[in-house]
Amino acid sequence: MSSLSNGTSKPLDRSNLIPFSSRLREGRALAQDVWSIFNVANLPADCINLGQGYMNFSPPKWITEAATEALNTVAPNHYSHPRGRIRLRDALKTFYEPLFGRSLDVESEILVTSGANEGQYSVFTAFLEQGDEVIMFEPFFDQYLPSVTFNGGKPVYVPLHPPAAHIENPTSDDWTINIDEIRSAITSRTKMIIVNTPHNPIGKVFTRKELEAIAAIAEEFNLLVMSDEVYDCLVFDNKEHVRIATLPGMWDRTVTVGSAGKAFAATGWRIGWLIAPKYIIQPTLAATTRIVFCSNSPLQEAAAAGLEQANDRNFFEIQRAEYAERRAILVDAFDKLGMKYTLPEGSYFILLDISDVDFPEDYPFPESVLGRGRDFRACWFIAMEVGISSIPVSEFYCEEHANIGEAYARFAFCKDTDTLKAAADRFQGLKKFLKH
Ligand code: GLN
Hints:
Blueprint (H helix, E strand, L loop, with lengths): L33 H4 L10 E2 L11 H11 L14 H15 L9 E4 L1 H13 L5 E6 L5 H7 L3 E6 L19 H7 L4 E7 L11 H13 L3 E5 L25 E6 H4 L8 E4 L2 H14 L5 H14 L4 H23 L3 E2 L6 E5 L20 H12 L2 E2 L1 E2 L9 H4 L2 E5 L4 H11 L9
Parallel strand pairs: 1-11, 3-4, 3-5, 5-6, 6-7
Antiparallel strand pairs: 2-8, 7-8, 9-10, 10-13, 12-13
Helix pairs in contact: 2-10, 3-10, 4-9, 11-14
The structure holds glutamine (GLN).
The site of glutamine has 5 residues, from loops.
């Protein structure tokens, strides 16, 4: 080997010539994310994927046809207005006005974003100063954390308490908040509170009473409320989906987040939206314009077609019934197994209590799940031995509270009934790994 510039035969390590930003050290951005670890690519090909929440079916044909039509038309192949294409903003206006009980101005109160994630990121960019605190209920959708810290914010966690042990058949409503805990989490730096209803990963649909209590705190301490309602079309058992923005006075301080991905089985489209008063939308528009400039144009047209026709086609009602049937397949499988789970009143996730799943600690686990919570190993073991993938719930907790999440695996039921029935059969294979 020829001699190298450092005078040894060992090549210089050039991998850190350009140090990356310390920002990535916060918000767990450097840890491998749970979606990548439990990606189908890492699991056996015949594993049934109930992990990451996306559908194994296409959007309705009448919506994909609208996408095709948009692709065959000149204008929607080009930049949209940063606020979003007017057809989609008009459709959002018509669809949401009755739900918000007010008129919505398409020029100043509706903003189309590149998925709900980017919309939320832009709100943080627009409103957070360095060191501002953002309250979020724990467990929380994992993306909130880096979105807050990248924008200089500090996450502050308030627990959603798991169902008391004596509750035989808990529902998502048995996960409770304690208003005094929210109050004591507030400091002079608290700027925002994130509400997520229906909730990922619990499926909790916050009650009017809970939202009224949160609203009272937001008023008292002058907080901006970000209400992530991307699962608003998936509320079951006649439970009421309450929009915190519709509570007295709350429109003025709330930004509501929506998603075409969830509504129309199109998670890869990355079309989301924000609805809020002008003085919340305007700064957020300034941020989003400089982050992405505008969002995917043809699929905005398709999302508009979806919203335009949804009510006439009874689309959301039919879809809700389909999801209720999908939920029932997994619930029956868990009942048959005799395992405890949280019956979700909304969203498409079920939390299964995996405390009793017994696995050998010397199982050949990959590096990616070692050193993480017990649930990472349990979920890996279930995927390998039972053939069903899921998401470990400690990922939705901060490190100090990860032990609470370790008791659960999250299974997504946004899959066709044949797949869920096959999973239900396989689930019975879990019996032999239960402690009692
Ligand atoms: N929202 C989806 C879920 O919770 C996907 C999240 C993601 O991939 N970042 O499963």
